[in-house]
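Exercise 7. Predict the structure of UDP-N-acetylmuramoylalanine--D-glutamate ligase from Thermoleptolyngbya oregonensis NK1-22.
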Amino acid sequence: MPSAYVIGLGKSGIAAARLLHRQGWQVTVSDSGSSDALRSMQQTLQAEGIAVLLGHRLEPDPTQMQRIVVSPGVRWDLPALETARALGIETIGEMELAWRSLSRIPWVAITGTNGKTTTTALTAAIFQAAGLTAPACGNIGYAACEVALTLAGEPHSSPSPPPPNLQPPTSKLQPLHSPDWIIAEISSYQIESSSTLAPRIALWTTFTPDHLSRHYTLENYYDIKASLLARSPLQIFNGDDPYLRSTADRWPNACWTSAAGKAHLLGDPMRGAYVEDGWAIALGERIVPIDALNMVGSHNTQNLLMAVLAARLAGIEKGAIAHAVETFPGVPHRLEHICTWRGIDFINDSKATNYDAAQVGLAAVPAPAILIAGGEAKDGDDTAWLSTIQQKAAAVLLIGSAAEAFAKRLASIGYSHYEIVETLDRAVERSAELGQALNAQTGLRTVLFSPACASFDQYPNFEARGDHFRTLCLAL
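Solution. The predicted structure, encoded as tokens:
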């Protein structure tokens, strides 16, 4: 029996281990952690015949492992993985493993720095409204290997819930059935470890500096994402993104979108999507009014155009598209309205894990607002974010390991209405106090949690962080 080694005991690693086991591999899963939640999952998997090593790091041995499967959060250039590849051990990502089981099914793959999650969720909603089984997977919804298990004869059609506090679900996942389409949100981490993944339709939402501590250069980050689009026969690009627009000559057969109208559209208007007289036009036809999408922020017009164009390229009828758009509820953790307390709206934008996403979030809410920001800081250009804070934020409450650095940056531009509160618990409490005072003085109606940071200093992921914010707000 061939042996496989899976790194990471999160949702993706668990699904990969189960799929390999179903395919006849002898499977070992490792995780460097050793929490109670991990030990609980260890017992569950070992009862299924899958070995689990906690507090363990990979030591490549071609006599003990013929394949290594890597979870998305594991660095692809990890020295142990480079050693494994040099030893001839097949090393792939969880998404690549899923693709090998699901490649006969057409995929829509969505990548980009920002906008991926909303576009993915809306695209899946449209395909489902057309009567198709089209699960959203990858960075949202199911792990891709959970979907693959439906074709591998997995007897439990509903994926097992992750252990408590390890990978909290943002919503209840429905039982899976054999899919007609796969709608996948795919990060650069997943692309670089998935060399043969070739979706039928690939979307690139935006491109700005992000994950440079992992990918090192902007050019390398771009090339990783470009490799996915290059393998796709149908490519959709956001033509309003300055960087993507500047690379148009590399994509002569691509379909483009533009919220700025037909005159701004790159390529053939009959193959693209744009806004005209308040309508989304795709492949030359009026599809749905832009204001049918009940989500704040002008950036969501672009997300709408890309999802609509993907649906039309897949042959979905206009009526199904319009119905899905009109009834789309939005996505958790992205400008998600949690509650209104004493006239103040509390909004969860935990998925804003970089400056560009946080700037878009703050720009989307009415001024003045109280902003809660901070976490584990990333490299990037914070200029536009700081400018929007000056324009729209009545106060900024800073949390996490980035708090001191963010305070210095705010002070350097002459912004003084900030406080270091360290934790999200204290931030919500303080925002309620400030909000009441500012509501009476200035008409302030919004508290926005938009961190501009990764979550890993205090939380396992941005979902856990956003769920904590939700709990704190509802407790008010």
